[in-house]
């Protein structure tokens, strides 16, 4: 699912109030961390993740999260990244410009 610019802006606005639900640190994206991210995306759709590492590691982790979970990166600032993945069975967030089923 590709998001429009207005939908991305809307989601960015929602991320300000979120607290990180997962933290990725020295051990990187282990199987358990990926399972936790996947579960959080299913439940919340929009999540914030704290990435504790150097710039190259953070970039690689973000790419891996997108590739593995099918989520879309909404934005990132420093060590915090936000991701969105629509829950097809029980949508939580109503996006502007599209119905909940899209």
Characterization of this structure:
With 102 residues, the protein is of the alpha+beta class. It has helices at 5-15, 31-44, 55-69; strands spanning 22-24, 46-51, 72-77, 80-84.
**Radius of gyration (Å):** 13 Å
- Give the spatial strand order of the biggest sheet: 1-2-4-3
Largest sheet: 4 strands, mixed
**Unreliable segments (pLDDT under 50, ≥5 consecutive)?**
none
Instruction: Tally the helices.
Output: 3
Cα distance, first to last residue?
Answer: 8 Å
The class by helix and strand makeup works out as: alpha+beta
Compact summary:
The protein is α+β, with helices and mostly antiparallel strands and 102 residues long. It has helices at 5-15, 31-44, 55-69; strands at 22-24, 46-51, 72-77, 80-84. The mean pLDDT is 92.
Helices and strands, with pairings:
Elements (H helix, E strand, L loop, with lengths): L4 H11 L6 E3 L6 H14 L1 E6 L3 H15 L2 E6 L2 E5 L18
Parallel strand pairs: 1-2
Antiparallel strand pairs: 2-4, 3-4
Any key phrases for this structure?
102 residues; alpha+beta; four-stranded mixed beta sheet; 3 helices; 4 strands; 39% helix; 20% strand; globular
């Amino acid at each position: 699912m590709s998001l429009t610019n207005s939908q991305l802006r809307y989601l960015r606005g929602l991320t300000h109030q979120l607290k990180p639900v997962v933290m990725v640190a020295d051990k990187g994206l282990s199987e358990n961390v990926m399972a936790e991210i996947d579960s959080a995306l299913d439940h919340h759709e929009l999540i914030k993740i704290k990435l504790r590492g150097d710039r190259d590691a953070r970039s690689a982790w973000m790419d891996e999260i997108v590739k593995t979970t099918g989520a879309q990166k909404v934005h990132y600032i420093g060590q915090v990244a936000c991701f969105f993945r629509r829950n097809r069975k029980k949508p939580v967030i109503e996006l502007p410009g599209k119905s909940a089923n899209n």
